[in-house]
Amino acid sequence: MTRLFAMSCGQLNIPAAYLTPGFQPGQRFDTRVGMFLLEHPRGLLLFDTGAAPECVDDLAGWWGSSMAENFPYRVRSEDIIDAQLRALGYRPRDVRHVVLSHLHLDHAGGMKLFPQARFYAQAHELAHAIWPGPPFQNDYILADLLPTRSYDLKALEGDADLFGDGSVRVLATPGHTRGHCSLLLRLPQTGAVLLPGDACLCSQAFAWSSPPGAPLRCPELWQGSLARLRAEIEAGALPLWSHEPVGPAGTAPQCYE
Ligand SMILES: [Zn+2]
Prior knowledge:
five-stranded mixed β-sheet, single chain, alpha/beta, Metallo-beta-lactamase, Chain A, globular, binds zinc ion, about 20% helix, eight-stranded mixed β-sheet
């Protein structure tokens, strides 16, 4: 049985100018913070880990005041990945594989909850997370990453077929960050499912070809990444966006089979 659960780690409030430049200037959107759990014959696989548990009680203290002001974030303890796994009947130590789209604060904050898992991230992203270059330093929280230095981490160089059977494919999609990647899954009934991560933030951004970020970290690489997403979606893959706008109540986990 292979099922995919799409979860959200609370609601991140993003300015329209960042989400889809030119769309409803001055407005802001509550968006999901995508985390995805795949029940796979080779073991539970998690794609992105949401924000750190510390954000629940002290967002400005953990993210810094400018990040907390620019991206107001509503997150409760039950939104954190360990609590969401428990709600699905799993413990964090049941997770065997964790793929990270990139190491930004709303994707890699839960890494430290999985000391027994094998992690996969792009080699470029690992260096980039430590030396992102100005003005991108606030996008990464060093305190999220330091506890994971002894973890089992496989540095990927571009695309990868994770289990060698085409069921879980990593697609290198740089642009939002230097070492960003997306995931392409094959489910028994749904068929191909694309998890873009932050290569493109939401369905509206995709429809308008809006870049994920202002300023965009690597604009010279992003057009090629968007073309990759477009090719998979046109070939029939179902995209599940990591920052799709949601209502104030947020969104319950959704299951795809
Ligand atoms: Zn990001």
